Amino acid sequence: TVDGKVPVFPSTSDVFPTKQGNTVPFPVSAGTFNSQQQSDVHTYWEFNPGTNWVFPHYELPSTGGVPTTFPSLQYAADFDSRIPGDGPSPLGKPANPTQTHGDNPDNPRDPDRTEATNPAQKETRLRFLPSRLTNEVILDVFVRVKSFEPAIPPTTPANIGKRLTDAYAKQVARVDTNGDGVISFVEADVNGTSDGLPNTRLYLPATAFNRFAVTREINDALLAPRFAPGQRSYVASGFLTRVNPAVPASIAIDADLR
Fold first, then answer.
1. Cis before 108 (ω within 30)
2. How far, in Å, CA of 127 to CA of 95, rounded?
3. Nearest CA among 230, 217, 232 for reference residue 63
4. How far is the first Cα of the chain from the last one, in angstroms, to the nearest whole number?
5. pLDDT (tens digit, 9 = 90+) per residue, 175-220?
6. Pairing outcome for strands 41-45 and 31-35
7. How much is the pLDDT for 106?
8. How far apart are CA 147 and CA 3, in angstroms?
């Protein structure tokens, strides 16, 4: 738990931020619902081994995700989490330059690059971590109080923020083969290896999660969920239209490549 007390799970009577659960969560992206003016409304849901990646937790202290840390733990202006790397606690190296890890308009980021057959064409400027690697970060921060940075116990917001950023960099280094502080699709290939072990260990199975939440995406390029994720009840409603003959529902790559 975030406060060391008896676990309190989310309930329908929660009121953000004064009354809510105290368990340590980490959301995994399962899909999205998008709607834009004069464009299509579409949803997609995918939760498979090798696809369940988690936002960079080093954003949490500057987005209010660690209780009472905002705004005291906002990082210096020269740290920008939009540039992929191992966060504000890098292991003895400078932050990655925008020229190589920024949003180059001539080489835009594209999630479909996970499907590229040529490893050189896969996206490498990632800010996410595989889910079980994220679990290791959380364990370092809140559980391994004797074996990970025992001189900085998770008893204050400042200590939690420090442990969070240090653990992130430490766990990334175990998988990061080229030392840029970023876990690429190639480095975390579910069928590959890293640190002498199979990469299947980097991903939690879908059955490890027991709650579904809807979070708000804010258009500021940060990936951490904000405010109060909805965890009550959701009902899919509307009209069901049967298609005859049937059309394949899943294909190898997004067919809408506009």
1. no
2. 13
3. 217
4. 45
5. 998 889 899 888 888 888 988 899 989 988 877 777 766 666 677 7
6. antiparallel
7. 85
8. 19
Place of tokens 């708000």: 216
Tell me the residue type at 127.
R
Whole-number pLDDT of residue 137: 92
Beta bridge pairs of residue 198: 193
Query: Which of these, 199, 233, 194, 195, lies nearest to 213 by C-alpha position?
Result: 233
Are 17 and 64 within 8 A, CB to CB?
Answer: no
Distance CA 230, CA 233 (A): 8
Look up residue 49 and give its two tokens: 């081994």
Q: Express each pLDDT in 103-155 by its tens digit.
A: 888 888 776 677 777 777 788 888 888 989 989 998 999 899 999 999 999 88
47 phi and psi angles, rounded to 5 deg: -145, 85
pTM of the predicted model as reported, rounded to 2 decimal places = 0.75
Which residue carries 């939440």 as its tokens? 213
Give the highest mean pLDDT range of 23-37, 122-136, 224-238.
122-136
Task: Sort strands 197-198 and 193-194 into parallel, antiparallel or unpaired.
Answer: antiparallel
Pairing, β 53-54 against β 129-130? antiparallel
Question: What pLDDT score does 32 carry?
Answer: 59
Q: How far apart are the C-alpha atoms of 93 and 86, rounded to whole Å? A: 10
* CA 204 centroid distance within chain: 13
**Residue the block writes with tokens 């992130």:** 168
Q: Give the integer Cα–Cα distance in Å for 152 and 72.
A: 18
